[in-house]
Amino acid sequence: MLTFVQDVPKVGMCFGTLDDANQFYQNYAKRVGFVIKIRFTRRVGKDKVPKNQMITCNREGKRKSRVSPIEKTNSRTNYNFPARISIRLNKEGLWVISKVCLDHSHPCDPEMAKLLTPNREMNMYMCRVIERNDEAGVRPSKTSQVLVDEMGDFSKISLMEKDVRNYFSRKVRNVTEEMDARKMLKYFTRIKDMNSDFYFNLELDQIKRFKTIFWAEARSRAAYEYFGDVVSFDTTYKTNRYNMLFGSFVGLNHHGNLVLLGCGLMTKENFGSFTWLFNAWLRCMHGKAPKSQCLGMRAGIENVMPGHVIGYAFDTL
Questions:
Q1: Which is nearest to 144 in space by CA: 157, 173, 115?
Q2: pLDDT over 70 percentage in the chain
Q3: Predicted TM-score (pTM) of this structure
Q4: How open is the CA angle 292-293-295, to the nearest 5 degrees?
Q5: How far apart, in whole angstroms, are the C-alpha atoms of residue 236 and residue 266?
């Protein structure tokens, strides 16, 4: 690979691959104190092979804000920054810098460059500290301060408290979905041991993941004996974290108050899921079907409880 190692981009510099050229300009931008973006890439042929590319400062271009300068609280905007490089693929298969402009119309701060979003990074040691502190219940703000103290100075660390919080949600918590499912099953089992009238059931898919879950507390089963004439089932609640639908069986007591008669989680809102969930709920209630159910679940209801009256769901529920 033919690559010049100068610190500053110059016309005629060659790179073996397009990624090498991008990385070179990225490293230069980090040293100077700005962030780059790919302005455009020209591709040719059926295979869309890249032939040339322009890389600019991320604040390149001129944008007119719709907000009045008097009302604007954040004065930052895009300027017509000329800083850029153009690279093209030559006949020898090397990427050559054909145009260079290093001028900036905004101040660049190399000391603060490491805190710009693309430049912030986290090594394995930092990740381990965050995970260990999370297990111990340490708040993200305290964890961030611990990392700063260990490095000796804030200027020597390339992350912010926001990065610690993002790591919690993106890395630590997202990878523990299986652990959360096990904790939920363990919790249900413990409640079942404490109260035999607590009921839960679950359906697994082909790779042993939770597909549909139903549970009902002892007081919900007892309440159904008295207030189970009309039941409303609602799936308007959704859990975004695990991409599952939450459904609730609700009745109305003699005071006109809502009574929870059972809950369920479903990965899909289809006939099979409703059928399984209604079967689980009916078994939980000792096979006693209500006198009226929601029209919206007609298909699943007719399959599980054939011959029963299907009424309208009360809007007040």
A1: 157
A2: 68
A3: 0.42
A4: 125
A5: 12
Q: Are β-strands 199-204 and 36-44 bridged in parallel, bridged antiparallel, or unpaired?
A: unpaired
Using CB atoms within 10 A of its CB, is residue 158 exposed (0-12), middle (13-18) or buried (19+)? middle
* CB neighbour list of residue 82: distance below 8 Å, 6 or more residues apart: 101, 103, 104, 105
Give the CA radius of gyration of the chain.
Answer: 30
Which tokens belong to 120? 């912030």
Amino acid present at 268? K
Alpha-carbon gap, residue 188 to 274, rounded angstroms:
22
For residues 289-311, one letter each, b for 16 or more C-beta atoms within 10 angstroms of the residue's C-beta and e for the rest, the string is bbebbbeebeebbeebbeeeeee
Instruction: Report the distance separating Cα 307 and Cα 309, nearest Å.
Output: 7
Of 284, 268, 278, 281, nearest in space to 302 by CA: 278
Within 94-187, strands assigned E span 95-101
Going by pLDDT thresholds of 50, 70 and 90, the confidence category of residue 313 is: very low
Q: Check the CA dihedral 165-170-171-176 and report its sign.
A: positive
- Rounded to an integer, what distance in angstroms lies between the CA atom of residue 38 and that of residue 264? 47
Beta strands in 45-107 (DSSP E): 49-57, 84-89, 95-101
Mean pLDDT across the chain: 76
pLDDT digits (tens, 9 = 90+) for 127-186: 788 778 877 878 878 887 877 777 766 566 667 677 777 776 666 555 455 667 778 888
The length of the chain in residues reads 317
Q: Which residues contact 227 (CB under 8 A, 6 or more apart)?
A: 251, 252, 253, 254, 259, 261
DSSP 204-220: E-TTS-EEEEEEE-HHH
Q: Which residues pair with 230 in a beta bridge?
A: 292
* Element holding 236 (H helix, E strand): strand 232-239
